[in-house]
TrEMBL record:
Name used for this protein in its record: Allophanate hydrolase
Database matches in SUPFAM superfamilies: Amidase signature (AS) enzymes (SSF75304)
Keyword check for Hydrolase: yes
Keyword check for Hydrolase: yes
Superkingdom, natural source: Bacteria
Amino acid sequence: MTTAGATRDKPTTSSGRGPVRGPSVAELLASYRDGSRSPSAHVATVLETVERRGDDGTWISVDAAAARRRAAELEATPGASDLPLYGVPFAVKDSIDVAGFATTLACPAYAYEPGGTAPAVQRLLDAGAICLGKTNLDQFATGLNGTRTPYTVPRSVFGDDLISGGSSSGSALAVALGEVPFAVATDTAGSGRVPPALNGVLGFKPSRGLLSTVGLVPACRSLDCLSLVAADVDDLRLVLGLMAGVDERDPWSRPRRRRADDPARLRVGLPDEAELSFFGDTAMADAHHAARTAVARAFSTLTPPLAPFLAAGELLYAGPWVAERLVEFGDFLDEHRADVLPVVEQIISGGARFSATDVFRAQYRLAELKAEVARLFETMDVLVLPSVGTTFTVPEVLADPVATNTVLGHYTHFGNLLDLCAVAVPAGTTEDGRPVSLMVLAPALDDDLVLGVAARLLDPLPA
């Protein structure tokens, strides 16, 4: 097994061309059926690509021998070729347990060997998929920028030292580099949407509880959900269908609800552009304006207020929910403070300042905002926003790690607090070549709805 910073070569310089289009799940399965490719051959090709790129910050651990062995076993098993993910490689964020891989949360002192595989990931293995390894993340899943790791700091596939986004940095990169068709990530405050947005791929945050979080080391247990990264909406639909299922061990678990509306007939909320913030980034503002203009031509739109959504988002880190991280990691901090990155330690320790009365006040305020947002969704089916208002380079984030991170979560922080599902959708580039992404949000259990809109947005829209 290869671990980050151990035996792999130095990273290859990024050309900054954006994401690489690897084969989708359907394309892989078709090539296996027609004999033009085999699982063993494809896995070997992917492993060669990973090795050639060197330690680029995507992976924390890769078990090449186990992946080759798994491919060979599948090929030798009668009937395995009929499995829905037969021989399909994928990646898993290193805050989720997979048997045979240490779970590190990007903190070597915290690492442990899990006793089993997270049930949602096991469903993928049972469907014939091949886990290549565990991907990099902001330590303890605390951050949206991708720089908070003791391993190699990843960069966006768009080059120019742009951040990868976090905390699910490696999951997004594994897809954006064409190494795997999909990856399993997590999303608490936007961790499953910001990195895909900054790497030109899809980031899907299902409704909280739809995918079991058993086997996930929690960041904020009441808000966490597993998320998915892919380059193809059909891959997201397939993987969601395989992973979703009620798990009685997960107290937030709930069943999936199907909704098959015609995306072209949906009511799309586009807030007044005066309410949108791009933090002085005029190129990003111009690119978003062009993207939303195309959306307005393709859908029936209305103009809901953005204020209640942003007000809910402000509660996340200004409110007591950050104390949930202290519940999970407080004892480890007490004994291993020197092993935790300073900015991560500062954020987690900050949870101690909140009282029980703070918790109740925040819950009352959130309940008011949830009711207001629910009334807004009575008039619209989905809300479309920028996924991010701007992005940064790695040096910019390192110079001001807290403020830049807050900016990155401006449009994502409220998603789980308000119990919404969401998907970040690539929407081209700015005039200076940086990624642009639209985020589609809807109430919980309207997952099929946001995926349908995502597919429509990826089709050529009216000019």
